[in-house]
Amino acid sequence: MTKQILILPGDGIGKEVTTSAVEVLDYLKASNDLDFNVLERDVGGTSYDLYGKPLTEETLEIAKNSDAVLFGAVGGPQWEHLGWDLRPEQALLGLRKSLGLFANLRPAFLFNELASASPLKNHIIENLDILIVRELTGGVYFGEPRGLVEDSDPKYAFNTMVYNEDEIRRIAKVAFEAAMSRNKKLCSVEKANVLEVSKFWRGIVTEMGPDYPEVELSHQLADNTAMQLVLNPNQYDVIVSSNLFGDILSDIAATLTGSIGMLPSASLNSSGQGMYEPCHGSAPDIAGQGIANPLAMISSLAMALEYSLGRKDLAVKIESAIKHFIQEGHRTKDISTSSDFIKTSEVAPILINFMKNE
Ligand code: NAD
User: Fold this and answer.
1) Residue 37: which domain range?
2) What's the CATH number where 69 sits?
3) Same domain, yes or no: 163 and 76
4) Closest ligand 1 atom to the C-alpha of 285?
5) How far is the CA of 211 from the centre of ligand 1 (A)?
6) How far is it, in rounded angstroms, from Cα 22 to Cα 298?
7) Distance between CA atoms of 128 and 111, rounded to whole angstroms?
8) Is the same domain home to 251 and 135?
9) Is the CB of 317 inside a 6 Å radius of any atom of ligand 1?
10) Were 72 and a residue from 10, 158, 297, 310 both cysteine, which residue would form a disulfide, CB within 3.0 to 4.6 Å?
């Protein structure tokens, strides 16, 4: 069946980096005779300016019927005065919720040539290659009841951290399977020493371990993982965690590589449908200057090809072209250590050239 891809460039540098990813996709489509149906729509602030909403019903309907959504970035100061429901970021939350994207995959990968950009010493960070699997639709961010009680003395506020067995099993399954396709190590992270929900989480993940006999399973407390990620990040292969802890740990891991313009992410549902986006935002400070690094977006396309479009071979091709690109010394401004750098629009043609000559 023809696979459908929805492109949502969004705002600011979202548009610029998406243009580069579409150039790579167009090349792959033509050179591999791919039967992909590619559609493009506005989202975020750009959609608000045109249609009065950050995400229209039509765009959401197309997203629901697509195998993969490539999402640039949304937001910018010109939309910050808007009410909560109309803010560009609501488009992201709306898509995540409507598509049931419960599994957030965030690789943190270091090209050794860029190790000097990391805040950590070279010998600690070299060869870093971690995948953080974060639960995205449950836990304390969504748990009920929640609220603020003001007619009490003292006033108080509360949230509920809750996971049911099915929610834990489905995210752990994604993580075990990811570990199987990588270095077969999985670390499950929670706070089983103080939280019932974490103890329950640990029990279920432990129970699933024997289904994946090749995977070396370990458990760690979240505060220790935060510390270990900085002290010795190479001890990890795949980390799985809840929405709250995963949020914090994936940001720490992203910072380790020192270059936010390089990091992709995938958010998947149980039918393999996914939304793919760079970890960075719309970067209003550099938007329109043509200097954004599009590699995070192009790597996100690679993840879409692997996880939702059934073409891991093409994902490998893109990743290998990016590796060549870095090894040959091509640098966008954010990863350049000198005043010499290339523009956003020059990146995709160099990658395509590598792929042609492979
Ligand atoms: P940001 O990620 O947009 O920018 C942080 C810094 O990193 C900036 O200095 C920026 O120039 C730089 N940067 C980011 N991506 C880059 C790239 N590809 N190449 C080179 N440099 C890059 O974060 P922010 O400044 O906190 O947020 C800006 C806007 O983006 C806000 O409106 C925020 O709400 C939104 N945002 C959106 C998303 C999303 O759409 N998923 C995520 C985060 C932030």
Assistant:
1) 1-101+284-358
2) 3.40.718.10
3) no
4) 11
5) 40
6) 8
7) 8
8) yes
9) no
10) 10
- Render pLDDT for 60-109 as a digit per residue (tens, 0 to 9): 999 999 999 999 999 999 999 999 899 999 999 899 989 999 999 999 99
191 is catalytic: yes
Indicate whether 184 and 239 sit together in one domain. yes
pLDDT of 1 strictly over 90: no
DSSP-derived secondary structure for 231-249: H-GGG-SEEEE-HHHHHHH
Closest atom of ligand 1 to 277 CA is 41
Q: What is the pLDDT of residues 169-188, one digit of tens each?
A: 999 999 999 999 999 999 99
Residue nearest to atom 26 of ligand 1 (CA): 281
Contact between residue 353 and residue 320 where contact means Cβ atoms under 8 Å apart: no
Count of domains for the chain: 2
Number of helices (H) and strands (E) in the chain: give both, helices first.
12, 12
Phi then psi dihedrals of residue 191, to 5 deg = -130, 65
* Phi and psi at residue 138, to the nearest 5°: -130, -155
Pocket test for ligand 1, best of 8, 282, 289, 297 (most atoms within 8 A of CB): 282
Is 251 an active-site residue? yes
> Residue 257: its pLDDT value, please?
87
